[in-house]
Amino acid sequence: MLGPSLAVSAILFSLGVVGVLLRRNAIVIFMCIELMLNAVNLTFVALSQQLGLDGQVFVFFVMTVAAAEAAVGLAIVIAVYRHRDTVNLQHINLLRG
Amino acid sequence: MSGLAGTAADWIWLAILLPFAGFVVNGAVAFLRPQARRLVSVVGVGSVAAAFALGVAVFAAVLGAHPTVPYVRTLWTWLPVGDLHVDAALQVDQLSVVMLLVVTGVSSLIHVFSIGYMRDDPGYARYFAYLNLFVAFMLVLVLGASFPVMFIGWEGVGLCSYLLIGFWFEEKEKADAGLKAFLVNRIGDVGFLIAMFLIFSHLGTLDFGTAFARAPQAFVAGSGTVTAIALFLFMGCVGKSAQIPLYIWLPDAMAGPTPVSALIHAATMVTAGVYLVARANIFFAMAPVAGAVVAGVGALTALFAATIGLKQWDIKKVLAYSTVSQLGYMFVGVGVGAYAAGIFHLVTHAFFKALLFLGAGSVIHVMHGAYHHTGRHADAQDMRNMGGLAAYMPWTARAMWVATLAIAGIPPLAGFFSKDEILGAAFARGAAQPYYYVVWAFGLAAAFLTAIYMTRLMLYTFHGPNRTGDQERTHLGEAPMVMTWPVVTLAALTIVAGALNLPHVASLEHWLDPVTAPATALLPALTLAGGAEAVLMTLAALIGIGGIWLTLRTLRPEALVTPERAPQETGLQKLLLEKYRVDELYRAAVVRPLVWFARVVLWKGVDAGLIDAAGVNGSAAVARGLGWLGSRLQTGQVGTYVVFFVIGVLAVLAALVHPSLGAVIRMVIP
């Protein structure tokens, strides 16, 4: 089962990366990041079958951090939307050189 | 080590430290309490007088030991750089102790004189600080045991000269005169530096003792190298001692206070060149061409400056050209190899020229005071405004007559013996090389002119009717005691100094033997047959007496009028009054092209065109372009950043997966 599990997580991770690269909507990008985190979680769980329970413990930490990150990140997205009436990242480029 | 260890010579450094401490104290006073005149006078005069006392003690020690090798007092290691090793060391020998006595002795008297002369000047403390600093540097110059140490003093006195010429820097022409002196001296200093480089590269040392000892083995007499060394050293002397073609700064140096003219620009600093030639005698003795150049330039300068002195109206200008002329004499002396005679004339000249300048200072002080009382603006230095002053200031007049007779070469005063010895030595060299007969003839002609211009100065200043002005006349009188007694002391010295080198009394020549022996061994003997010597002596005396007599017979001070009513000069007189227009010639031939070159080529071309446009603005443009390129990466789009981020992650991954890919990536991203 290890091979298919790792393959699924690799596919999920790549989907997340592609989503981050191609999508414009901040919320969708945010979701893609979550997807990448969960792909990593799947890897941890799959590998813990052979390497012990450390990986499963780590998954809880990742989920905790992801939850905190979701709270902060979504709050920022809301603040940006109130300010600029858009969450399209193409229009948010204050740091242009 | 000679017999001087453990004597006063061990304390020789104190002679420099004392005036330097005086400079520090007076300099501090100048900033903090400029009105503390009494403290400044005590410190200023006291430090130099203490140095003189030490000089006397060292002289006594040298007199007792009479060492054949110089006593070198090493203080610390100064420049240990590779093969070059220079100690901060001082040297006591017969020559440096003579200079030590003259410098500190004359300085002490002039410091005392300055108390009176500068009494009402707001820069009193600053003046004494500079003067003390000068004495300290002058002592470094004459006591240094190596060329670099001497050079420190050499540059230091140049600095003090600049500061004191431009002492009243509020007046532009005086500040300019200081600048001129400084710049002209730099030209000569280049020569001194090149000479030092040559000496080090060929002899491997810059210490006097070692360098002079190695020179006879290292060089072939008359070879190009030793001639070049001697000539470059002489170039430094030409600048410092105001010889043709660099003499032009000295007459302008009269812009400074008169005691400064007496001390720096007559008695001590300007004689440094003569001292250098006498010190480095071996180089000049090994290079006959250089010796001939020294004597020739000296003779030419002696005659040339004397002719200009004939027509000057400014009392200090006459004395300035007289100084240039007398320095020429000294160079004739050291050039022909009569080092003792040159130094002898240096000593006697220091006495009588300091006396003449101090006397002139008293006259100017009194004249200035008289004009100040009535509020009239007239030139206090123009002899046409003087006349008949002997009646008002008898002591100054008498003392200055003594100096005039001495400089004119009237026996038995100091100047007669020293001048006669120089001319005699030149004449003796003439027997083998007729060139030196020309030098001798120039010297004799200059002696004649010296008698004329000095008598003219005395006649116009002190005799005939007074032309100062009817109201001003009542304010004329003798200068204060503090100014007259240094003058009278110098007059006494002028009378007796001739005995310094009289056979059977005292012999400066034998005294200096340990210093000059290596050189005199190489040169032909300078002795004359007894008959010839007597004839020459009589001739020299007659020339002086004849000049004075002629002047007294022909000049009519009664006919002289004040400068406002003076008729326009014409012909040769105008040319002499305008100093042969040498300054104008230099301006056209040297200064203007140099300024043009600096402005058009160096400033507009090199600086503005190359350095500013290509260097400064060019590098700024390159930086701006690179920054523009870099800023293109900063799009502000999160997507762009993520792309780069992913590329980076992939690269790291690839490197982990396969080492050879890692090498490729390292080539792309250093």
Structure, explained:
The complex is a heterodimer of chains A (97) and B (670). Chain A is built from three helices and no strands. Chain A has helices at residues 2-22, 26-51, 54-84. Chain A starts with a helix and ends in a 13-residue tail after the last helix. The model of chain A has no long low-confidence stretch (mean pLDDT 91). Chain B is mainly α. Chain B has 26 helices and two strands. Chain B has a two-stranded antiparallel ribbon. The chains are: A mainly alpha (97), B mainly alpha (670).
Q: TL;DR?
A:
The complex is a heterodimer of chains A (97) and B (670). Chain A has 97 residues and is mainly alpha-helical.
Secondary-structure topology with pairs:
The complex is a heterodimer of chains A (97) and B (670).
Chain A: H1 2-22, H2 26-51, H3 54-84
Helix pairs in contact in A: 1-2, 2-3
Chain B: H1 12-32, H2 37-65, E1 71-81, E2 84-92, H3 94-117, H4 124-143, H5 147-165, H6 172-203, H7 208-218, H8 224-240, H9 249-252, H10 258-267, H11 272-279, H12 281-286, H13 288-309, H14 315-336, H15 339-374, H16 394-408, H17 414-430, H18 435-462, H19 481-496, H20 508-511, H21 513-522, H22 530-554, H23 571-577, H24 582-633, H25 638-657, H26 659-668
Antiparallel strand pairs in B: 1-2
